[in-house]
Amino acid sequence: MKNINIRPTSAADWPALKSTRLAALLDAPTAFGASHASAASFSDADWQQRAISTPQRTFFLAFDGEQAIGIAAQVVAGDGVCHLIAMWVQQEYRGMAVAAGLVDAVKQRAVDNCHARLLLDVAQENARAAAFYQKQGFVFLPEWEALESHPHIQVQKMEWLVAA
């Protein structure tokens, strides 16, 4: 693999966070709970705030040199459950270790913040993503819900548990 660096974002990373997130939402509009239109409406100040890592929300970017090529985030919902969201890698970097590195970074952040499990949502139509998550240790739960950005799409919950 090329010299890929994966790290949590800081306030200075907001332009890369914005461009990578918007690219993901354009590339795979039905894979995310947010829409491109809603994310594109955020102000630069909103993106700067999102780029600052907190125990409640941390975005990770994968960089090839100075170019951001992937994204994932760890978010703690209001009910205290930790989620992996916003997972995306540029097409030419898929099938490499970039996605696994992003998932590992999110898992490590969850563990560091004392979460025993990590949840994500995946659409049945996204078989490649589901198979990838299974390889990363996630298992399907018998829980379904409508995707917020596209309510006609049902997503299934997957769970990863910290080894006891």
* CATH hierarchy class name of one domain: Alpha Beta
Examine the coordinates and then state which fold CATH places here, giving the name of the CATH topology of one domain. Answer: Aminopeptidase
CATH architecture of one domain: 3-Layer(aba) Sandwich
Count the strands? Answer: 7
Tell me roughly what share of residues is in helical segments.
25-40%
Strand order of the largest sheet: 1-2-3-4
Give Rg in angstroms: 15 Å
- What series of H and E elements makes up the topology? EHHHEEEHEHEE
- Going by CATH, the homologous superfamily of one domain would be Gcn5-related N-acetyltransferase (GNAT)
Describe the 3D structure.
- This protein has a 4-stranded antiparallel beta sheet, with helices on both faces. The protein has a 3-stranded antiparallel beta sheet with strand order 5-7-6.
- It has a domain at 4-115: Gcn5-related N-acetyltransferase (GNAT) (Aminopeptidase).
- Helix 1 (14-27) crosses helix 3 (44-51).
- The chain starts with a strand and ends with a strand.
- It is α+β, with helices and mostly antiparallel strands.
- It contains 5 helices and 7 strands.
- It has helices at 14-27, 36-40, 44-51, 98-112, 127-135, and strands spanning 4-8, 57-64, 67-76, 82-89, 117-123, 139-147, 150-161.
- A hairpin with a 2-residue loop joins strand 2 and strand 3.
- The mean pLDDT is 94.
